[in-house]
Write a structure and sequence with these properties.
The mean pLDDT is 95. It is built from seven helices and seven strands. A seven-stranded parallel sheet has the order 3-2-1-4-5-6-7, sandwiched between helices. The protein is α/β, with parallel strands linked by helices. Helix content is 43%, strand content 15%.
């Protein structure tokens, strides 16, 4: 008799221990995905136990940790159907005060984590007949904010990468899209940043995760190469 668990899709989620990453893990689990989670924090362990997930404690900036996540998930589940690339936060400050080391760290975090996971997972997805990448970017990628120079610059580059990837791999049934949150209430939000939001409040992590889960599902099957802003109607 076939085990119905074996037919469930598999999603990798990075930076999954709290905030948007945790919310994505929970939303995907609710949609029937089996999970492989990664985070630098030990908090990923109880979350993985709660959701019955494979887990790795590691950083998106370390290619060896990304390989552990990918190979571990493939070994345990035999497939990968979705990758949610979430990250922490890079350096902030005046544009010309950002050091080389901070730019490089931001590149590793925001851009290369996606490129590396795509390089690892795409051949597996192609062999399966398809899959989905959803990258957590930021509304700052299309509406630059001088408070977040590293995020603005490198996530704009991620937007171009996503369009290139989407066009090159659509014929293999593989999609890639970016979700661009505005301000989210897992961090304090100043009145200055709240006032331009038409809805008058920041998003909850779950509201961002619901968009991610939709993009991961067949319900969004014709959405590819897009940057979807989740900012409550912020006026820039």
């Amino acid at each position: 008799m076939t085990n119905p668990e074996l037919s469930k899709p598999v999603a990798l989620v990075t930076a999954a221990s709290r905030g948007i990453g945790e919310a994505c893990a929970r939303a995907l689990h609710a949609k029937g995905f089996r999970l492989a989670l990664m985070s630098r924090s030990e908090a990923v362990v109880p979350l993985a136990e709660e959701l019955g997930a494979f887990h790795v404690q590691g950083s998106v900036t370390d290619f060896n940790d990304l390989k552990k996540l990918f190979h571990g998930a493939l070994g345990q589940y035999g497939r990968v159907d979705c990758v949610v690339c979430n990250t922490g936060h890079a350096a902030k400050g005046a544009l010309t005060d950002i050091t080389d080391e901070q730019w490089i760290e931001g590149m590793e975090m925001y851009f290369l984590s996606v490129a590396r996971l795509a390089r690892l997972v795409t051949p597996v997805m192609a062999g399966q007949g398809g899959g989905v990448f959803v990258n957590i970017s930021s509304a700052a990628a299309i509406n630059p904010n001088s408070d977040y120079p590293v995020s603005c610059a490198l996530r704009a580059a991620l937007g171009n990468y996503t369009q290139l990837f989407a066009s090159q791999h659509a014929s293999q049934g593989i999609r890639m899209n970016n979700v661009l949150p505005g301000f989210v209430d897992n961090h304090p939000v100043s009145e200055k940043n709240l006032s331009p939001i038409a809805m008058g409040r920041p998003a909850s992590p779950a509201e961002v995760a619901n968009v991610v889960a939709w993009l991961a599902s067949a319900e969004s099957s014709f959405v590819n190469g897009q940057e979807i802003t989740v900012d409550g109607g912020r006026v820039y």
